[in-house]
Amino acid sequence: MRTSESREPDALSRGAYSASEGLRLLNFSRGSTPVRHVSRSTVARWLRGYDFGNEESGGHSELLWRPDYSNDDDLIEFSFRDLIELRFVKAFRDIGLGLPTIRECYQRAAEEVHDERPFSTQKFRIDGKTIFLEITEGIQEAKLVDLRRRQSGKRQITLPGLPTGMTTRSPTMFTCTPVNETEPQAFTCLCHSPAFARLNDMVERRFSRRSFLTGAGAVVGAAAFWPKQASAAIPDAPKSPIAFTNIKLFDGKSGKLIEGKRVVIEGNKIKSIEEAASPLAAGSETIDCGGRTLMPGLIDAHWHSMMAAVPMMDLMTADIGYINLVAAEEARKTLMRGFTTIRDMAGPSFGLKRAIDRGLNPGPRIWPSGAMISQTSGHGDFRLPYEVPAQIDASLTHGEAAGAGMIADGVDQVLKRTREQLMLGASQIKLAAGGGVASNFDPIDVSQYTEPEFRAAVDCAENWGTYVTVHAYTSRAIQTAIRGGVRCIEHGQLMDEDTAKMIADKGIWFSSQAFIENEFSNSYPEGSANQAKQRTMYAGTDTAYGLAKKYKLKTAWGTDLLFNPAMTKNQGAILTTMSRWYSNDEILVMATGTNAELLAMSGPRNPYPNKVGVIEAGAYADLLLIDGDPIANIKLIADPEKNLKIIVKDGRIYKNTLA
Question: Is the Cβ–Cβ distance between 587 and 578 less than 8 Å?
Fold first, then answer.
């Protein structure tokens, strides 16, 4: 259902849409609306008697003309929603919207349509304003709206070439009358044409009203002013600014608590940091925080959204639908632990990210890497020995098909797999540079990939304005990757001093984890080869952090929890174990403002344009209110259920246990 770039302008410019050409063009705004695959003769039968080209219908033959339906085997995708949308596209043309604007409507609708079920809220945004069709149980409206204005209980706008305050209300579908019956309409509305009335009647007869309107949304406004909500688990966006008063402020940068301030959020961003004694703007709501600590949401720079709460065997064998459901619930729990942002370091998290961003599921912001790219026999090759050797043209493995990892050997394959992940939406690329603990067939001391292979991935990423990070423990693996242009090292527990110097000299990021043998160890079975590799890696953690501090490496923090649903609840507690090497204020800065600096390396591939990890004007309103002083007692982070009194993400209050 896609129209090529060359056909779209041509169809738009001549104003002519065939049943196939025009309906395919409208795919930009359809989302995942169910369609039927039907023959052209069936379409002709449906349309028989509804001639949009006759004089009575206003002469709209240029909108829908009949192609040759003689070839009944020529199947097309068709839904009644397509035909309805064509009516409104023609209405946009009638009221003077130019072709570039209509094309912009298509693109914006593709990005922002919220409720994708048939005949629900369908919207088009122009210059921050919104045009949309709303259908609800018992009342149907087609409105031009702007949530920044209110007139007589209606939100109305004026756009160039559009009538002022047009709204519709009718007991039947897709028909309209002006807001003010005494004012003449500024244009001829298709809703009033007899042909459109016949179409409306046809649609109502074919589908019952109840099923036709199931799931239709409430009014959805401009996203910049009223973030969308599609789930009962997603709290309403505040309708007025909120001022957090009586706070101790940890801003994610200074490493100290600041008193005498208040923080005001508006929409999904921080509006201002104000003096507590200054007058508060009229209309603001106030939350008295009782002297507690307000800080940015936490960031886990090495999280596995799709793998953390799924045992390895499930990941290797289960249906991807099940894995997505488990990951969605874990995403909700991640947010409720105070982690409002994560960098996903391998796994098919693109769909989960999209669902969270669209308000379908609560969860943190996600910087996705997509599948980790690995050489044959590398850390991302989870095939069993009986699957080796593989034919040159062998099918994808289960893990590859799911998007967990991709095997690529040689420059050409690395180029291809890197480009695929970027196409899917990766904000950064991850390669396996050395042996791993979880993988069964690569010793931890081996190096993986050559400099030319690393350089291939780096060139791809840099062409897209982002970077490559690598899984690597040993000095050889790290140094080879750095010479290949890699800009971030994950883990690094087995590096030596020369390697630390190289990291410092090149300005490479060191993203590591508190891997020690303690109550939070993600331990493997006693006596297993995986456990032996794990203990080798644990033995180097103290040295690695010592070198990081000695050479002042740019150090980020993450958990890297894998395959253990019982361990994910300890995400915050694992952060507190960093006190073995760092002071409490250093830990908090690392898990907020410093991790945010690493995320910003994605450049134009950064999926969220504003700052995270800090409390400053213009940053996203991702906030935590902690019952106590985490600089004095970092352990407060370890018990989020008890100590996190307020959790805010994107300006929405997900938790508030204050009286």
Answer: yes
